[in-house]
Amino acid sequence: MGKLYAVLGQNDALTMVSLPDGSIIGVLFSTPDRAFDFLRMHRIPAGEVVEIASPREYVSMAAAFLEADV
Questions:
Q1: Do the domain assignments include residue 58?
Q2: Best exposed site among 11, 12, 51, 56 by fewest CB in 10 Å?
Protein backbone atom coordinates (compact mmCIF):
# COMPACT_ATOMS: atom_id res chain seq x y z
CA MET A 1 0.00 0.00 0.00
CA GLY A 2 1.36 3.42 -0.90
CA LYS A 3 1.63 6.25 1.56
CA LEU A 4 0.84 9.92 1.03
CA TYR A 5 2.80 12.56 2.87
CA ALA A 6 1.87 16.22 2.54
CA VAL A 7 3.21 19.32 4.24
CA LEU A 8 0.66 22.10 4.04
CA GLY A 9 1.33 25.79 4.48
CA GLN A 10 -0.83 28.24 6.39
CA ASN A 11 -3.37 28.70 3.57
CA ASP A 12 -2.99 25.48 1.57
CA ALA A 13 -5.91 23.17 0.87
CA LEU A 14 -5.76 19.49 -0.05
CA THR A 15 -8.69 18.44 -2.19
CA MET A 16 -9.34 14.75 -2.71
CA VAL A 17 -11.53 13.77 -5.67
CA SER A 18 -12.91 10.30 -6.31
CA LEU A 19 -12.76 9.05 -9.90
CA PRO A 20 -15.31 6.82 -11.66
CA ASP A 21 -12.99 3.81 -11.36
CA GLY A 22 -13.03 4.11 -7.56
CA SER A 23 -9.57 5.61 -7.19
CA ILE A 24 -8.99 8.91 -5.42
CA ILE A 25 -6.64 11.71 -6.40
CA GLY A 26 -5.36 14.46 -4.15
CA VAL A 27 -4.63 17.91 -5.50
CA LEU A 28 -2.85 20.58 -3.45
CA PHE A 29 -3.99 24.18 -3.88
CA SER A 30 -2.74 27.39 -2.31
CA THR A 31 -6.23 28.29 -1.03
CA PRO A 32 -9.61 26.56 -0.68
CA ASP A 33 -11.06 29.06 -3.18
CA ARG A 34 -8.65 27.84 -5.85
CA ALA A 35 -9.72 24.28 -5.11
CA PHE A 36 -13.35 25.20 -5.69
CA ASP A 37 -12.40 27.05 -8.90
CA PHE A 38 -10.63 23.90 -10.15
CA LEU A 39 -13.69 21.75 -9.43
CA ARG A 40 -16.01 24.17 -11.22
CA MET A 41 -13.65 24.54 -14.19
CA HIS A 42 -13.45 20.76 -14.70
CA ARG A 43 -17.16 20.28 -13.94
CA ILE A 44 -16.45 17.80 -11.17
CA PRO A 45 -19.74 17.12 -9.35
CA ALA A 46 -19.80 18.15 -5.70
CA GLY A 47 -20.75 14.58 -4.78
CA GLU A 48 -17.36 13.35 -6.00
CA VAL A 49 -15.39 15.61 -3.67
CA VAL A 50 -14.21 13.65 -0.66
CA GLU A 51 -12.76 16.49 1.39
CA ILE A 52 -11.48 20.01 1.18
CA ALA A 53 -9.35 20.45 4.26
CA SER A 54 -7.43 23.21 5.93
CA PRO A 55 -3.95 22.34 7.25
CA ARG A 56 -5.34 21.93 10.78
CA GLU A 57 -8.14 19.65 9.55
CA TYR A 58 -5.69 17.61 7.48
CA VAL A 59 -3.44 17.03 10.49
CA SER A 60 -6.47 15.87 12.49
CA MET A 61 -7.54 13.51 9.69
CA ALA A 62 -4.01 12.11 9.39
CA ALA A 63 -3.82 11.54 13.15
CA ALA A 64 -7.20 9.78 13.15
CA PHE A 65 -6.07 7.60 10.23
CA LEU A 66 -2.88 6.60 12.05
CA GLU A 67 -4.90 5.64 15.13
CA ALA A 68 -7.47 3.61 13.17
CA ASP A 69 -7.42 -0.13 13.69
CA VAL A 70 -7.54 -1.53 10.16
A1: yes
A2: 56
| Nearest C-alpha neighbor of 16 from the set 1, 27, 32, 5 | 27
CB 15 within 8 A of CB 27: yes
The region, left, alpha or beta by phi > 0 then psi within -120 to 50, assigned to residue 22 is left
Amino acid at 67: E
Q: Which domain range does residue 26 map to?
A: 13-67
Is the pTM higher than 0.90? The answer reads no
pLDDT, tens digit, for every residue of 3-26?
Answer: 444 455 566 666 666 666 766 666
Q: Half-sphere exposure of residue 67, counting CA atoms within 13 Å on the CB side?
A: 6
